[in-house]
Amino acid sequence: MYLQLTIFIIIIAIVIDVIFGELPAKIHPVVWMGKLIDFLSGYLTSYRSKISGIILTFLVVIIFTLATYVLLHLSAFNYILYILISSIILSTTFAIKVLLTSAENMKNDIDHNIEKARQSMSFLVSRNTMELNEEDLVSATIETLTENITDSIIAPLFYAFIFGVPGAVVYRVINTLDAMVGYKTPEKIKIGWFSAKSDDVLNFIPARITGVFIVIAAVFLRLNWKNAYNIMRRDARKPESPNSGFSMAAAAGALDIKLEKIGYYEIGDELSPLTTEKITEAVSLSKITVLLFILVASVLFGIFTVLI
């Protein structure tokens, strides 16, 4: 019964996210995570010890995991309320609508106002965007989209299927910590190392699953699925991150394009022009990838519930 309820909650959470998008910032758990991370890291950074990174990670994970359990426990007296609260909390751990809409908006900006596109892109990537040309912006958009399929969608859902709502919350906490303090700068290398390593571990399986599902999605869309598989095998490990390259490489191969972060990596081969239409194809590829994962995961999880 619990496992069947988990699938139901996951489906409702996905519907909530696709229809309504993100909660307002004032009540969004990830915003609260960010504020707590800022507050705690402000105190712990001064210790300049790797232990501070472990303490920070465990504190934030424990606080948000306990808060999740308390909310779920308090709502358990009413079946419908429990499902609603669980679904809303879970919906905040992934961002299907925001991720896809951001890519579509970037395409529109590149087509009509490249200065606005450069400004918008500056909020999405760490590189200097003010001198990027159209091809650079298209590449950065597709890189951002395909890399975040793992972090923003597949991984939290993967852990929701296995560990329920608390599992997805723990993943989102670790991923948020990595995004905020997981940098190899003198100020953050001590406090951010543990969350960065934890994020690498948690994304190891989801990243590779995402790459495989992109290849399968390419089959359904009649894209170059063979190239998607070959490029993933060849180029997935080119980025510094041990996980981000799998989805990017599979997508680059499927779209017959080369994705490049100048001075860091080149993924794929330039078999087709890097036009804004490739963003549209990448969005379609992402949608089918996510849909396939949800369907397959639900079926496998359903079979598992019957067997036990």
Automatic annotation (TrEMBL):
GO terms for biological process: cobalamin biosynthetic process. It is found in: Cell membrane. GO terms for molecular function: ABC-type vitamin B12 transporter activity; threonine-phosphate decarboxylase activity. Its main location: membrane. One of its GO terms (cellular component) is plasma membrane. InterPro entries: Cobalamin_biosynth_CobD/CbiB (IPR004485). It is a multi-pass membrane protein. Keywords: Cell membrane, Cobalamin biosynthesis, Membrane, Transmembrane, Transmembrane helix. The chain crosses the membrane at residues 6-25, 51-73, 79-100, 153-174, 205-225, 288-307. Pathway: Cofactor biosynthesis; adenosylcobalamin biosynthesis. Signal peptide: none annotated. The keyword Cell membrane applies. PANTHER family: COBALAMIN BIOSYNTHESIS PROTEIN CBIB. Converts cobyric acid to cobinamide by the addition of aminopropanol on the F carboxylic group. Belongs to the CobD/CbiB family. This is Probable cobalamin biosynthesis protein CobD. It comes from Methanobacterium veterum.
